[in-house]
Amino acid sequence: MDVAAALDRLAPRLSPTATGAVNVRRLSGGASLETWAFDLTDRTPLILRRRPEGAAMRETALPLASEAALIRAAAAAGSPAPSVVHVCTPEDSLGEAYVMRRLEGETLGRRIVRDETFAGVRPGLARRCGEVLARIHAAPTEDLPDLAISDARGELERYEAIYRQLDARRPILEAAFRWLEAIAPPPPERPVLVHGDFRNGNLMIHPEGGLVGVLDWELAHLGDPAEDLGWICVNSWRFGEWRRPAGGFGDYDELLDGYGGGISLDRVRFWQSLGSLKWGVMCLMMYQSFATGQDRSIERAMIGRRTSETEIDLVKLMETT
Amino acid sequence: MISHPTAAELSEAIAAFEAEHAIPGDARQTFLARVTDNARATLAREAEHGARLEAEAVERLTKLMGETGDYATLNAELCEALRDGAIDPQDPALLAHLRATAIGQIAIDQPGYGGLAALLDG
């Protein structure tokens, strides 16, 4: 697959004043989905998201066309989002893919929570995340693409089933499953559009504009609004700033104030704990693709050793509840 | 003691990466080189502390479970007891063991992880 050549041919359809695509480069990270940055000859900065040939889709991952539709729906609901320029068709020779505007900013959590560059926007960021989540959760659900529905108990069962298949003996995860099962909240009265991966890494932060885009809608579904609020508080995305639970840049009350009420801190803390447990199981799952020979990269081997970060977080959460 | 991956699997993955041809300027390979450095450091810490931590874990498990056995056996029994409800997930003696286990493994896997400071703080 020659991505650069395919984008060059596609360019005039992406912008009427463009004759080709230049500076085509693959960005690092992401093994299940590729992200490419490129410019058009008329200087329009763009991003291509595509699924590599033969890549196994995560069980719950959405088709990229649905992801594009959700970005459009979120933007319509008032969430900052990149504008989707084109959803690829087979004639484009890019496989399953779409093109969106490239936003200016930073997604790397380590920089967002620490660098001087972001010192000016950090103080308002947790509140802003709360506001943006409230808008996403208020999006009308009738017009969305088909999405899975989930709740706390269902998620616990799903992840425990995955854990059992992995044949690991992790007493901290075992204890966490039983603990969370005993305190799981009932399903929400009205399931809302949940982003499903709202955390550092998927939030485009501009040094002056703050949160300018919510990215990576691959795990979106209908469910409990507290899920997104809890996920951004998982310690794994605080990049060492563990004293600031909301993303490593703010406090619970700022996040909840921005959200505008209606959700208890207990419910957020439950979903934060379930988030740590889910991330622990995901780390084991990704390691499994190394163990089975499906992906023998050092990345897949090493991610198994991140399970222990979720275990130490879970011990802390179990001790303090 | 530590699995998913074991030290042997990590060594194998490091060797496989080292055998690959370098592509100068390739972002993915630069990223994987950094991961490989981390893997080497993890292995070094495990070689230094792994045996002691396992012996300490066996000692704790022997008291907690009231049985003798090797680490794998006792740990598997603890998992069973948690799964079938024989041990409460918030039992203080259990939590003390889990706490020590978590601290021991993070010291090998990721000694700079913020969760360690958070746990010791409380």
Structure commentary:
The complex is a heterodimer of chains A (321) and B (122). Chain A is an alpha+beta fold and 321 residues long. Chain A folds into two domains: 3-101, Phosphorylase Kinase, domain 1 (2-Layer Sandwich), CATH 3.30.200.20; 109-320, Aminoglycoside phosphotransferase (APH), C-terminal lobe (Aminoglycoside 3'-phosphotransferase, Chain: A, domain 2), CATH 3.90.1200.10. Chain A is 43% helix and 13% strand. Chain A has helices at 3-14, 64-76, 109-114, 122-137, 152-166, 171-183, 225-231, 252-259, 265-291, 298-303, 307-320, and strands at residues 21-26, 34-40, 45-50, 84-87, 97-101, 192-194, 203-206, 210-214, 221-223. In chain A, the strands form three sheets. In chain A, strands 1-2-3-5-4 form a five-stranded antiparallel beta sheet, with helices on both faces. In chain A, strands 6-9 form a two-stranded antiparallel ribbon. Chain A has a two-stranded antiparallel ribbon with strand order 7-8. Chain A starts with a helix and ends with a helix. Chain B has 122 residues and is mainly alpha-helical. Chain B has one domain. Chain B is 74% helix and 0% strand. Chain B contains five helices and no strands. In chain B, helix 1 packs antiparallel against helix 2 (27-65) and helix 2 packs across helix 3. The two termini of chain B are 27 Å apart. Classes of the chains: A alpha+beta (321), B mainly alpha (122). At the A-B interface, helix 6, helix 9, helix 10 and helix 11 of A face helix 1, helix 2, helix 3, helix 4 and helix 5 of B.
State the largest interface: A-B, 50 and 52 residues
Overall 3D shape of chain B: elongated
Strand order of the largest sheet of chain A: 1-2-3-5-4
Distance between the termini of chain B: 27 Å
Mean pLDDT of chain A: 94
What are the low-pLDDT stretches of chain A, counting only 5+ consecutive residues below 50? Answer: none
CATH class call of the largest domain in chain A: Alpha Beta
Helix content of chain B: over 70%
The tally of beta strands of chain A, per DSSP, is: 9
* Rg of chain B, alpha carbons: 18 Å
Along the chain, the helix and strand elements of chain B come as HHHHH
